[in-house]
Amino acid sequence: MLNNRVDDNLNETGYDTHVAGIISIQTNNRVAISGLANNCQIMPLRADFALANVREVLLNDDVSDDIVYATNNGHT
Fold it and tell me: How many domains, the chain?
């Protein structure tokens, strides 16, 4: 969610997709890796930077808005 709207382009670097895969991969899958939280549900959200051209400014309100959104939509 970005500025209270759904954004299908959440991934700019691929990092979050990689992390989500490690977290949610099945255990006992006969592959050399096991997930950290088997059968978990992931809701991809992104807190945007406060100023478009200053990537170092991320406000706590932006993060807390996403946490409230996730909680209100069934994720705890």
Answer: 1
